[in-house]
Amino acid sequence: MMKENYDAYVTTATFLSNRIPRQELPNLQDIPYPELVIAVSSNPSENDISLVPDCALSSMEYTESILDKILLKIFRNLVEKNTGGIRSDQQGIAGLLEQGRTFMVQEGQTPEAMHKMVYDTLGGLMTPYLPPFYRIFMSGIVPEFLGTSWSGKQIGPWFYAPWLTSIVTPTFFGFLVGPSYPNTRKDGQPGGLVVEKCKFLQESGCKGLCLHQCKLPAQMFFREELGLSLTVTPNFVTQECQWSFGEVPLPVEEDPYFPKGCLIGCQSRQAMAGLKTDATCDA
Predict the structure, then answer these.
(1) pTM of the entire predicted model
(2) What is the pLDDT of residues 175-200, one digit of tens each?
(3) Packing angle, helices 111-126 and 66-82, rounded to 10
(4) What is the DSSP string of 87-125?
(5) CA-to-CA distance for 119 and 113, rounded, in angstroms?
């Protein structure tokens, strides 16, 4: 139904959303959470910054596997390296977020510097070996070492790449975002993944960190390093997040799913007040 008539799908799925488990719906991007009351109905502002309502759902309690703990430790070490030595004594995701927030609120900080920091960190996490493998067998990029006229050219992504990426990703993804599972992209194609309630967003409560240290650098890394387009679509009302592999992302300023303004409860806004920086939370 999504392929033929997306509006009809939204109407049908909305009707079913309080009758069947939400996880059974193929895609959740435009499906309201049953009986969810948004905290404010107006559009408040503070010092000329428009404010976005905080998530109205209860916080999720996350469990961490041994793999999650190992990956988070490696990731935090890479962040420390790529931020010039920023570290935190806090444990777990709270420590990672403190590192990211400290980097974000530095005087003279830019979005581009944050994107590069996360890009380099993702590259370090994947090691030098996984990206070339992915580029060949998932994205269909002919390796340079073959020395042919096709070398370096992309003849993919292969038809299975978005779907297979959505299957594999949850295992290695939970240390940052919590539980996730494969679903269908908005266009009705396989290759979607939905985060049930993003750990990174829930624990940070910061739209700027979400945008500049997750959404944009992740999209950039997949496109430039791995050769597969990716659209990351956070829902700030529910803290669900849709990852659509193989879908070309819109610029943030044109993305109807990314509201203008800063989250009401954002802890970064006050820290950034008065700083000379291009990194803002109200993008």
Answers:
(1) 0.92
(2) 999 999 999 999 999 999 999 999 99
(3) 130
(4) --SS-HHHHHHHHHHHHHTSTT--HHHHHHHHHHHHHHH
(5) 10
Task: Read off the tokens for 235.
Answer: 């829902």
Q: For 231, phi and psi rounded to 5 degrees?
A: -115, 125
Query: Residue 210's closest CA among 224, 195, 225?
Result: 195
Is 188 within 8 Å of 236 (Cβ atoms)?
no
Helix (H) or strand (E) holding 183: strand 180-184
Q: What is the pLDDT of residues 134-176, one digit of tens each?
A: 999 999 999 988 889 999 999 999 999 999 999 999 999 999 9
Are 193 and 169 a contacting pair, CB within 8 Å? yes
Residue the block writes with tokens 């266009």? 187
Cβ-proximal residues to 56 (8 Å cutoff; 6+ apart), any chain:
36, 37, 38, 39, 237
